From TrEMBL:
The keyword Protease does not apply. Catalyzes the folate-dependent formation of 5-methyl-uridine at position 54 (M-5-U54) in all tRNAs. It comes from Pseudogemmobacter lacusdianii. Its cofactor is FAD. Pfam families: GIDA. SUPFAM superfamilies: FAD/NAD(P)-binding domain. Its EC number is 2.1.1.74. It catalyses: uridine(54) in tRNA + (6R)-5,10-methylene-5,6,7,8-tetrahydrofolate + NADPH + H(+) = 5-methyluridine(54) in tRNA + (6S)-5,6,7,8-tetrahydrofolate + NADP(+); uridine(54) in tRNA + (6R)-5,10-methylene-5,6,7,8-tetrahydrofolate + NADH + H(+) = 5-methyluridine(54) in tRNA + (6S)-5,6,7,8-tetrahydrofolate + NAD(+). This is Methylenetetrahydrofolate--tRNA-(uracil-5-)-methyltransferase TrmFO. The lineage of its organism: Bacteria, Pseudomonadati, Pseudomonadota, Alphaproteobacteria, Rhodobacterales. Belongs to the MnmG family. TrmFO subfamily. FAD binds at G9, G10, G11, M12, A13, G14.
Length: 443
């Protein structure tokens, strides 16, 4: 009888790993501590619950590294991308989903698979034998985190991640706010009007920055440091880096025309993205925060169109844990000191839902192949998955290792003979090369 693969953590990585391994004929036991042991951020006991944003980011597989990763996961038969497509919401060029039915369907598929069983007991120690994947994500329980530190002889690294608030659509003033995706992106009218836009004058923007800087913030515990991941900075931390930072970041006014005042160019714009299929909830894009709840309500209600906003969820902040993968993992994502254990997902130092799920898919295929006696090599570094796994298992500088999103800077350079290529042409060359290499690797 084929040996079982044990996977700890039912998030994006664990769910994808379980699906990949089971579909290769390997029995899987998926361990998830929720709902018996809760976390700060989760609301349900479903697998693949989307905690922060409801977006898988760009779906452009020709000129975007994230979109390319979407393509590779779909091509490899991944569960996350297939389910995301079914529960897709209008979001311009991004892949956003109705998060609750998305997680419910992923859970249903995993529980219905004849080779997948589930255990809802907390795993508190690294196992001494068997075949395991640790995919507990950034909210790894303190007991298991301590076991990892003890086994590796290395301190687990940590950074702080913040959650953006969600607003009830009915409380948004549509006499001020208008619907438009930046640069009218999207193939349908619904996609081209996927975002709500709140315009600000220069005076309103300056007052908003003042309020952000003065707002009461969450304090860190003794010994903690604010090692934020740059791709998910709290909005007030961005403001602290310069008064114009937000206006060139999530509040940039480019590619937008105020439908109520077409001749007046906004100085800054706050965007909201639909968070559910009913269109009753919107999240404030890029507005993750560590402000205290009272301060959030006061500050965010100064945004034009949100003066009477009612919040379904306010923002929050939590500590995320990840390991120094370049030091600890081999090219098969195995713990060098205990090769029967693999790590996958955000705990390895990849950042984002898509990257986490992709590393879960890869770990599941690698583990299943090894159990079946047919080990496989990692994907070529020219592919998105290959570039990520190469980065976390040796390509990154261990001394300065920080969470990383997939990006073309992780790929081997494209030969640009014949003169300097335009950016769009170069990105298309990256994706064309990657698709060919990934297809060959899969076969």
């Amino acid at each position: 009888m084929t040996k079982a693969l044990h996977i700890v953590g039912g998030g994006m990585a664990g769910s994808e790993a379980a699906w990949a391994a089971a579909n290769m004929g390997v029995p899987v036991v998926l361990h998830e501590m929720r709902p018996k042991v809760a976390t700060f951020a989760h609301r349900t006991s479903d697998f693949a619950e989307m905690v922060c944003s409801n977006s898988f980011r760009s779906d452009d597989d020709e000129r975007n590294a994230v979109g390319l990763l979407h393509w590779e996961m779909r091509t490899a038969g991944g569960l996350v991308m297939r389910t995301a497509q079914k529960h897709r919401l209008p979001a311009g060029g991004a892949l956003a989903v109705d998060r609750d039915p998305f997680a419910a369907e992923v859970t249903a598929h995993l529980k219905a698979h004849p080779l997948i069983s589930t255990s809802y007991e907390e795993v508190t120690e690294l196992p001494s034998d068997g075949n395991w994947i640790i995919a507990t994500g950034p909210l790894t329980s303190s007991a298991l985190a301590e076991s990892i530190r003890s086994a590796t002889g290395a301190e687990a690294l940590a950074f702080f991640d913040a959650i953006a608030p969600i607003v009830y659509a009915e409380s948004i003033d549509m006499n001020v706010v208008w619907r438009q995706s930046r640069y009218d992106k999207g193939e349908t009218e619904e996609e081209q009007k996927a975002y709500l836009n709140c315009p600000m004058t220069k005076e309103q923007y300056e007052a908003f920055i003042d309020a952000l800087l003065a707002a009461e913030k969450t304090e860190f515990h003794e010994g903690e440091t604010a090692g934020y991941f740059d791709g998910c900075l709290p909005v007030e931390v961005m403001a602290e880096r310069g008064r114009e930072t937000l206006r060139f970041g999530p509040m940039k006014p480019v590619g937008l025309t105020n439908a109520h005042q077409p001749d007046v160019k906004p100085y800054a714009v706050v965007q909201l993205r639909r968070d559910n299929a009913l269109g009753t909830l919107y999240n404030i894009v890029g507005f993750q925060t560590k402000m205290k709840y009272g301060a959030q309500t006061a500050v965010f209600k100064t945004i034009p169109g949100l003066e009477n906003a009612s919040f379904a969820r306010l923002g929050g902040i939590h500590r995320n844990t990840f390991i120094n993968s370049p030091t600890l993992l081999d090219s098969q994502m195995r713990l060098k000191s205990r090769p029967h254990i693999r790590f996958a997902g955000q705990i390895t130092g990849v950042e984002g839902y898509v990257e986490s799920a992709a590393m879960g898919l890869l770990a599941g295929r690698m583990a299943a192949s090894e159990i079946l006696g047919q080990p496989i090599a990692p994907p070529p570094p020219e592919t998105a998955m290959g570039a990520l796994v190469t980065h976390i298992t040796g390509g990154a500088e261990a001394k300065t290792f920080q969470p990383m999103n997939v990006n073309f800077g992780l790929f081997p350079p494209i030969d640009a003979k014949g003169g300097r290529r335009g950016r769009k042409d170069r990105y298309k060359a990256y994706t064309d090369r990657a698709k060919e290499a990934f297809t060959e690797w899969l076969s």
